[in-house]
Structure formats: structure tokens, C-alpha cells
Amino acid sequence: MIAISLDRIRQIEARRDELAALMATGDLSGERFVAVSKEYAELEPVAVAAAQVRRLRQEAESLAHMTEDADAELRAMAEEELRENKAALEAADRRLALALLPRDAADERSAMLEVRAGTGGDEAALFAGDLFRMYQRYAETQGWRVELISASESEVGGFKEVVASVTGQGVFARLKFESGVHRVQRVPVTESGGRIHTSAATVAVLPEAEEVDVQIDDKDLRIDIYRSSGPGGQSVNTTDSAVRIVHIPTGLTVIQQDEKSQHKNKAKALKVLRTRLYELERERLHAERAGARKSMVGSGDRSERIRTYNFPQGRVTDHRINLTLHRLPEILAGEMDELIGALIAEDEAERLAALNAA
User: Fold this and answer.
1) Rounded to 5°, angle at Cα 131 from 129 and 134
2) Which residues contact residue 219 at a Cβ distance below 8 angstroms, ignoring those fewer than 6 apart?
3) Region of residue 240 (phi > 0: left; psi between -120 and 50: alpha; otherwise: beta)
């Protein structure tokens, strides 16, 4: 069990009470009220978990005295309740430890989802389409909104590349472990001999940045306007609406041409650029704080093979946590809670172990 500082708990509870009193006055300005409410919401789960641990420990002490009672029936009852209390206390201690773990500041944010076909030609593009639809369906179950930013469709269906904004509460927290290489094993529709082919697609999930997170200086940008190309109707080929933005200091380049309006394409391109710059800074800070350490669920490295979808056997295997689920059709239909829940639990266990070892 993790050693939890009682002094730290008291400080958190005192600060929570102070913030509650501040909000009760009704004297806070709008901006100040939002800031105080946010801090209160972060501290409240810790205070609630700590109160539950305290209550269970007090119960344990009372029950321990009762087990020494001369009455055999009362003693047996106390021993049974003490066993139940022990299990509940272990669970409460874990909840408190998890509430005290440092949180990823980006967890509550919306996210940019990028899916790209990898090795495997047409089959990889079809698989990229399957993955994107899987995330769309999962987003629907969570009440999130998916907005297409850009898409490059393949001739046989699916996508060579698709980028979307997924908006909602806690999107990044639940999708961040999806970054990496996803592999599929199945018989392509074009395969007459019934041979199983292996192909892959790459997924990247980035927390969306807000304007206050990343300040972009106009002098650091090179913006080119040109005529769009590809499918999209006559206007695509007759108007100079496509936008290419190059961030000179980093070399990051974003191209946007899905909208007929140059202004809309520029706004979308800047949104993607801001998110990618924000992720670069997050990666730099993470490297400084964590060194070379990688958790069991991986670093989010897009070159890391994380999961295999095997159609003949109807199974999905996540290689990071050695989890195999024989529910491939359901998972592709958006039923991802079991898979995502297991990844989050493994990450929590890994971070608790690291805290214990520190």
C-alpha cells in the first residue's frame, strides 16, 4: 500500500474548504469564479476519498475491539464485518492514491485524431477507414462531436489519410493510448485465393491546443495560397482556396484544401498547426521530467505496434498489456470501453508502482 502523507491530505482538505467558502460568498468575478471552481473540482475527489478512508479506518478499530468480545455470536459477526471492511479499505486506499497521482493536464481536453494508411496498399487504406469509423462510433457512445478536418480518400474506399477534431469532456484521457501502429490480418475482398494478408494503419491522438497555449507569431509563418486539386466539384479546380502553412522555426507544414473558402481552410490549418506545436512542447517537457522511462501502455510513439485485429479468429489483441478480446465485430462497431478501460487501469497501476518505488 502506498504511504500517503497525512499533512498533504490536511492541506488539500483545508484548501478545499477555503475554496468552498470563497464560492459561497458570491463576490467572485466571472473569471475568478471559473478559476476557483476548477481548482475546487480538482481537490474535491481527493477530499472525498480521504474522508472515506478515515471512516473505514475508524470502523476497523471499532470492529477490532468487538472481535475480543466474550459473546461468541457478536465476535463472529464482528470478524465477518472486519473482513468486508478490509476489502473496502483497500479499495478506498487505492482510490485515494489514484486521486493524488499527478494528472496529465491535457486529459480533459478535446483531441485531434489522425489516421493514416501504412503498409499494405489498398487494404491498408480500407483498414484506415475501418479504424476511423470505429472511433466515430465510439465517440457517439460518449456524446462527443467529430468534425472532419481533412481527408484523402483512396480509389477503392477507405482513407489514405484522415484528420478529425473530436470534441468533448475527457476525450484525450480516453483516446491517448490509441496512438501507434494498428495491424490487421484478414482476407482482402480482392483476394481470390483466400490468403490472409497483413497490413497496417497509423493512429495519432493529440490534445487540442487553445490559443492561450501556443502563441504563433505571424513572422514565423509562410502561408501559400494555391488552387485545390482532387475530387470536390468544379469549384475545387477554379478557385485559389487551398492553404499551405509552414511554421519556419520547426519546419512543420500543414496543408488544408477541403473547404471551398480560403478563410475556412486557413482557420483549420492553423488549428492543426497549433495542436502539433502544443504536442511538440508536451513531448519536450515529458522527456525532461521522465527521462527515457516508458510505461507498459507505451509512449504514444506512432512507430510502435500496439494492436492486432485478426478477422479469421475474430479477435483483437493489445500487445502492450497482453490483452486479447474475442469481440472484434463489437469493437469495430465502437464498443471500446473494455479495451480502453484496461489500458487506463494498466497505466494507473504502473504509475502507482512507480510512486511506491520512488
Assistant:
1) 110
2) none
3) beta
What is the rounded CA–CA span in Å between residue 273 and residue 85? 52
Q: pTM of the full predicted structure?
A: 0.72
DSSP 6-53: HHHHHHHHHHHHHHHHHHHH----HHHHHHHHHHHHHHHHHHHHHHHH
Q: Which residues 6+ apart lie within 8 Å of 152 measured at CB?
A: 159, 160, 161, 162, 230
For 308-343, letters b (16+ CB in 10 Å) and e give: bbbeeeebbbbbbbeeebebbeebbebbbeebbebb
Read off the amino acid at residue 91: A
Please tell me the distance from the alpha carbon of residue 322 to that of residue 178, in angstroms, as a whole number.
15
Please determine, for residue 302, whether its predicted confidence score (pLDDT) is greater than 70.
no
Q: Which of 148, 143, 131 is nearest to 272 (CA)?
A: 148
Specify the residue for cell string 502561408. 223
Q: How confident is the model at residue 184 (pLDDT cuts 50, 70, 90)?
A: very high
- Judged by DSSP in three states, 172 sits in helix
The runs of H, that is alpha helices, within the chain are: 6-25, 30-66, 72-100, 121-142, 171-175, 234-238, 262-290, 328-332, 337-357
Contact, 320 vs 296, CB < 8 A? yes
* Cα–Cα dist 33/137, whole Å: 36
Q: Quote the CA–CA distance of 65 and 63 in Å, as a whole number.
A: 5
Total residues belonging to the chain: 358
Q: Compute the average pLDDT of residues 144-165.
A: 90
**Buried b vs exposed e over 210-243: b needs ≥16 C-beta within 10 Å?**
eeebbebeeeeeeeeeeebeeeeeeebeeeebbb
